[in-house]
Amino acid sequence: MDVEKLLEIDQTVVDFEVEKICNLGRSVIDIEANMIANLAPRIDHRFAKACDYLLRCRGRIAIMGVGKSGHIGKKIAATFASTGTPAFFIDPNEAKHGDIGMLTHEDVVLALSNSGESEEIIALLPVIERLSIPFITLTGRADSTLAKTAHINIDVSVEKEACPLGLAPTSSTTAALVMGDALAMALLESRGFTEKDFAMSHPGGLLGKRLLLKVESLMHTGTHIPIVRDQASLKDALVEMTRKKLGITTIVNAQNELLGIFTDGDVRRAFDNQADIRTTQIKEVMSKNPKTISADLLATEALRLMETYKITSLIVTNEKRHPVGVIHIHDILEAGIF
């Protein structure tokens, strides 16, 4: 058999294996999608009551889970916390050895357990009961110990795991995760949680920067502001521009009021008009009425103005029209807002 024929056979085997693997992957998605779809009818009065407990909670939502349910619980806790519902995850094993002290009389417990028989959580029931706090569960069995003990049990059972062996938690953990998201989003809407609220809990994220970062945090201030008096020569202005490295300089009068701006474009125009670098006063070649912005406005507003007027810098002024800073487009881009 020649080499080309052998390679042709090998490619056929490869194509077969690729399709087989892809079909297995699609099967998992199909199974889990069907199991998630089955959750919709379970959004009923029990779900609403659970949301009511969570909304009226004056403390925090303590979320518990063991194993894979613990991983899902951590994600749900993070989602709650970032969308206006204070929450934290508590490991039931660690809780048995002191961490249960994190709970207060003002908290609510949300426990995840597919079997509803997690011994680690069951061991904590006396303490939860003694604190007289609401106990909500997400379980796969309505007749389980945790489901029967709960003030509210939400059914997250699945008919089939996506695991071909029916052993690895797949559909069941996805169902619990989706129900947790449903709770979190219902609470978000009920609280009137806004984009600005979201930004407050994500100050390092893109949205947080867009909604929170102000001009004053990015502008060049003090001795870094390029500034010359209106009586200065064109040469003095060029020296100041070179020294401050922002491609501009501001021009002020004796009262430190902003009169104009001198940019790289103004330099070219001045030389095109054969202005004498030593004898020409900067006020003769400056651009009057430059675009300005207030320090307390958002950096996104500064960028909007730059884009609108096709400029790269804005002068930051106070109520007396004194220059207090300069913000450059590079400052905004380096901040990672866009």
Label this structure with key terms.
338 residues; five-stranded parallel β-sheet; 12 strands
Overview of the structural elements:
The protein has 338 residues and is an alpha/beta fold. The chain contains 16 helices and twelve strands. The chain has helices at 3-37, 45-55, 68-82, 92-95, 119-122, 125-131, 145-149, 171-191, 195-200, 206-212, 215-218, 234-244, 264-272, 282-285, 299-309, 329-334, and strands spanning 61-65, 87-89, 108-113, 135-139, 152-155, 227-229, 248-252, 258-263, 287-288, 292-293, 313-317, 323-328. The longest helix is centred in the first third of the chain and has 35 residues, at 3-37. It starts with a helix and ends with a helix. The mean pLDDT is 91.
Structure, briefly:
With 338 residues, this protein is of the alpha/beta class. The protein contains 16 helices and twelve strands. Strands 2-1-3-4-5 form a five-stranded parallel beta sheet.
Instruction: Provide the gyration radius in Å.
Output: 32 Å
The amount of helix comes to 40-55%
Q: Helical element count?
A: 16
Number-wise, the strands total: 12
Strand percent estimate? 15-25%
Strand numbers in spatial order across the main sheet: 2-1-3-4-5
Distance between the termini: 59 Å
- Secondary-structure-derived class: alpha/beta
Helix and strand topology:
Blueprint: H1 3-37, H2 45-55, E1 61-65, H3 68-82, E2 87-89, H4 92-95, E3 108-113, H5 119-122, H6 125-131, E4 135-139, H7 145-149, E5 152-155, H8 171-191, H9 195-200, H10 206-212, H11 215-218, E6 227-229, H12 234-244, E7 248-252, E8 258-263, H13 264-272, H14 282-285, E9 287-288, E10 292-293, H15 299-309, E11 313-317, E12 323-328, H16 329-334
Parallel strand pairs: 1-2, 1-3, 3-4, 4-5, 6-7, 10-11
Antiparallel strand pairs: 7-8, 8-9, 11-12
Helix pairs in contact: 1-8, 2-8, 3-8
